[in-house]
Design goal:
This protein is α+β, with helices and mostly antiparallel strands. It is 20% helix and 40% strand.
Length: 80
């Protein structure tokens, strides 16, 4: 994760929750921010999910189905 420069400068911390669809072929789409912080944090969570490992679709009776997934990520300032 790259802490957004704007969020660092403004000392923003907290949690971002996003929701997206995992399609039957494992691709991702329809990203929505359910709870955001702004300052680039919301976009960073979406970027991490999009650039991360491929997702496996949910299956029902051994058939892939679309599903909605929620991901929450915490942004915390580390003070040295």
């Amino acid at each position: 994760m790259r802490y957004p420069k704007e969020a660092l400068a403004s000392k923003i911390k907290g949690k971002v929750t996003i929701q997206f669809t995992v399609k039957t072929d494992g691709t991702l789409g329809e990203f929505n921010v359910l709870k955001g912080l702004g300052y680039g944090c919301d976009e960073e969570v979406v970027r991490l999910v999009q650039e991360g490992p491929k997702w496996q679709p949910t299956t029902e009776d051994n058939v892939a189905v679309e599903s909605e997934v929620k991901v929450r990520m915490k942004f915390a300032l580390l003070i040295n």
